[in-house]
Give the backbone structure.
Amino acid sequence: MGAAPKKADERAAELFELAPDEIEICLNMKTGAARYELRHRLRPPALEDWREYERVLRSTVEMSDAEPEALVFGSSPLEAAAAIYDRLCRGASGYQDSDGTRGAVGAERVPVHHKEMVIRALSDVAAEECRAPAGASQDGSEADAPCALFALDGEHVEIALEASRAGRAYRLVHVFRPPSAADRVAFSRVMAQALYVRDSRTLRTILPPRLPGLAALYDRLIERVEGYAIHGASPGEAAAIIRHMDPLHKKVAVQALFAQ
C-alpha cells in the first residue's frame, strides 16, 4: 500500500517561506539544573535592515602598531547584531523580572548576547557543502576520482544553499543564467570596494557594505528557485522571487555563483 498523499499545508511546511507574517526564533538554553526556552518574535528582515547591519558591523583593516608587518582586521559583530535585533523585535517571552513578574518583554530588556544568538540563527544560510564525488578515496580525497568537464555554454547554473528556520533544515536551489564577462567585472568591483582613511599614524581600510551590489547582481541573473514558497505557493516568475527573496540568501547564492 502506497504512502498517503501529503496535504497542502504539509507540503508548504517543507518549503522555506519568503513572506511570513512573523519569524519566531527559540533559544534553548541550560544553566545548571535550569532549562530555558526563550522565544523571540521578529518581523521579516528587509534589505535596508541588513544594510544597516553591515554599516554597524563596519569591517576594517589596518596596520598593527605592535607588529609593523601585520594587519589587524576589526568589526563590531555584537553591536551590529544588537542594532538589527532592535529593529526587528516584536517581543520576547521566557524571561522574568527580579520580582518574579513574567510576560512578554521588549528589545530593550533582552540581554545583548541573546540578541546576537537570535541574529545568528536568523542568518543561518550557507552554500551547500560539496560532497565527495563517486570514485573518491575513503579518506575523502579526490585524487582517484574522475574529473568532470566544465560546461562552457550551459544555459543555466544551479546553486544549492542550506538554511534552517524553527529547527527545520532546508535545501534551497537557485537557478541563474550564466554570468557574462560584464557581470563578472561588476562582481569584482563590488568585492574590491574599499575606503581608505589616513589618520595620524597609519592608513586604515574600511570595507563598505557589499550587500546592495550583490543583491543587484542576483536580481539581474536569477531565473527560478526551488524549495521556497510565497504565502504557501510556488514563487513563480523571477519578478516575485526578486521582490520576496531574503537579502542574505541573495548574497550567499550570488557569491557561490561567482566562485565557480
